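Trying the structure run again after the queue cleared.
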Amino acid sequence: MRSLLLIIIIALTTRFLFADAYFQQEVEYKINVTLNPDTKTYAGTEYIHYKNNSPDVLDYIWIHLYPNAYKDESTPFAKQQNLRRSRSFHFSDKSERGYLNLESVKLNSKILSWDYKPEAIDEVKIILPQPLEPNQSVDLKLDFKGKFPKSFSRMSYFNQTHFAATQWYPKVVVYDKFGWHPDSYLDMGEFYGEFARFDVSI
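Done. Tokens:
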């Protein structure tokens, strides 16, 4: 009886442990970007190779545009600043703020559309022209323009030569067994990102 009970326990435990097999999406970036220190702006092209290692079919890919947290007072970052009674961003001049704008997104020369996350312009959902099946991959080309903000939080400029370039590029959102994680940029909070390969020219 004990042997039978032990076998049942082992079988149930094994089934539970392997019910959701671990996977990690494959992401590769090739980024060419030009920085203008005088205007605190930058512009570039980013190539993303994305392989779907999940068991799910994906109809879109979420992208972080984290510097848009510094674009205006509608963002989760700005609202968090107000809740913490930190007024430096609230009273800042528009010229001191930052952004990251997508200019275009292409897949094999086909122009793709995207949707912003409701009430969070630092997250966009790129709509794929056809579903991305498990073990399939796509190669996206993104053109973008950005601007460094004054020092309100992590990403900032200090003068003509010092730039704190955290989370400055269009960044693929993590997809795991719980789904997508389009978490907005916050001052008090951490970042959840995919491991990736980077080839960057500045």
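The chain has two helices and 14 strands. Worth checking whether this holds up in the mutant runs.
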